[in-house]
Specification:
Radius of gyration: 21 Å
Largest sheet: 2 strands, antiparallel
Shape: globular
Order of helices and strands: HHHHHHHEEHHHHHHH
Strand order of the largest sheet: 1-2
Number of strands: 2
Structural class: mainly alpha
Distance between the termini: 42 Å
Strand content: under 5%
Number of helices: 14
């Protein structure tokens, strides 16, 4: 069942042709506004915090800490392309990071085998979500909230509220601790995943079909698109990416605990929703999602360095989500007005 609708709002060359320079700038603001804001925030914090913000140490810290959120945001973005929401990206990471550690420390699995098992289970979770949404016809918000809550409960039962601790091989912890070109390898994961998803979304038929389903599933079905297959595939992809984020988190923390993970849900969804307001406003897209997470990362890092309290991060995330929804609504209304005005003139 469709939970959200994907409708591209970026202006076409025909729409921009008859506008003045100022009108074009206003019309293009939703497209490039957030990237410009991200650059402006970086400049602002660099000027106001010259000794701490514009440093390689801060850059590595931000990239390392927010890469997991960005992977989760990209995971959530895939079902959103088809008009669905996957809340298990936040709940699942609790289970996956605990499982990745316990398979090695308590069951003696090789680190590579443990990684493969977690990725496979992530795919199974995505398949279950897809079947619940497409076969059982449960709204994706409700279905993934239910499966996510079950996963969280299973993790609490398994851990008994205690930490999962043990010696982990360097090869496994290197999944997070390795640096490449002076940057955390987690940032390279984000870049690689983003490029792959961008190619699929923009240049392959599967991406166009997912967007078509998100815009109007019935019309897509009438045009011969096997909507069930593509929606289930989107959930499986989301499940695998969410499991991979859990593996990276396990390599970072080196301990498993059920209390860690849920705090990733809101910023991941905020990044995906915020990404739908830029680059290609009106529909989720890869680089918009990356920019959305970057806004969160830069804003929170700067505010914290000014001495922001512990509640600043959730407050910033929540306010940013409201702003993102507001921008999307404004863009939709602006597009609708732009379409109706020429019709009114021609009929007069």
């Amino acid at each position: 069942m469709e939970s959200i609708r994907s409708t591209a709002l970026e202006p076409t060359p025909r729409e921009l042709a008859g506008l003045s320079r100022l009108q074009r700038s206003i019309r293009l603001l939703p497209v490039y506004g957030l990237p410009i804001l991200a650059v402006a925030l970086i400049i602002l914090f660099s000027v106001m915090l010259p000794t701490t913000f514009p440093t390689m140490l801060n850059l590595r810290s931000v990239l390392g800490d927010k890469s997991i959120i960005c992977i989760l945001a990209l995971a959530a973005m895939v079902p959103m392309m088809a008009g669905r929401i996957d809340l298990t990206v936040g709940y699942g990471i609790v289970m996956w990071h605990v499982l990745a550690i316990s398979l090695q420390t308590q069951y003696g699995l090789n680190w590579f085998a443990a990684v493969l098992v977690v990725l496979a289970l992530g795919a199974v979770l995505g398949l279950v979500n897809g079947l619940l949404v497409e076969i059982a016809r449960i709204d994706s918000f409700i279905a993934t909230l239910g499966t996510g809550t079950v996963l969280y409960a299973l993790t609490l039962w398994y851990t008994g509220g205690r930490q999962v601790i043990g010696a982990l091989p360097k090869e496994f912890t290197g999944i997070y601790t390795t640096n490449l070109f002076g940057l955390p390898i987690a940032a390279i994961y984000v870049l690689a995943i983003s490029v792959v998803l961008w190619i699929v979304a923009e240049y392959l038929p599967i991406g166009r079909m997912l967007y078509a389903i998100g815009a109007n599933q019935r019309a897509a079905s009438l045009n011969g698109i096997r909507t069930r297959r593509f929606v289930i595939g989107a959930f499986v992809t989301s499940g695998v990416l969410g499991a991979f984020a859990g593996i990276v988190l396990a390599a970072k923390l080196r301990i498993g605990q059920a209390s860690v993970g849920l705090e990733f849900l809101l910023p991941a969804l905020v990044g995906a929703f915020l990404g739908s307001t830029t680059i290609k406003p009106g529909r989720v897209n890869v680089w918009g999602t990356v920019v959305g997470v970057a806004i969160l990362a830069v804003g929170i890092s700067g505010i914290q360095q000014f001495g922001g309290a512990f509640y600043v991060e959730p407050l910033f995330n929540g306010m940013t989500l409201l702003v993102a929804i507001g921008i999307a609504g404004y863009s939709q209304r602006n597009r609708s007005i732009g379409r109706t005005k020429p019709l009114q003139k021609s009929g007069s």
